[in-house]
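As the work plan foresaw, our protein records have gained a structure token line. A representative record is set out beneath this paragraph:
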Amino acid sequence: MAIKVPGKRYGKRLEHSKVFGHGAHGKKSTFADLLITPLVDMFVIIVLFLIANFSATGEVLMMTKDIQLPEAVNVKEVEMHPVVLVSNEQVSISGTIVGRVEDIVKDEYLNIPPLEEKLREMKKQFEDLHAMAGGDTNAFKGDVNIQAHKEVEFKIIKRVMFSCATAGYNNINFAVLTKGGSEATPPSADAAPH
């Protein structure tokens, strides 16, 4: 067997071309090469677009369809604090359901024990985290946001407020919509009078 010197080797794309290829003029390749560079460019553009349009403040309140916020004229911007959601059916805090309104109405207590327990747990976690970080031990200010449906009875709101105050959250803010503003206006909070 004779030893042959190898010729030039062409890439996959040029292997079947009429100019550089070897006799595969009539056949078409069934495999398409994936072009990585344009794909990476497209993903970089998408990521930059999402970063540019991301809200720096983030979502403070969880907007749900079963809670319609009341309107107010004198408002201030909502800050990041624990959020107690009160709808016509249930009471929840930061996404965890702590009670149903119909069960709460039947109880004779002035507070809502599961809500109070969850708030105390959140306060303890906050204080432990600041103690481990070596921060200020008096950093806990007791701020809480109440996001209640506008048609919820006041006795339920009163019990929620009492539970918050008993757990150490004395600075209570109510989430409201700005009156007279457009529907795209973000929710604001109005401080509760003490």
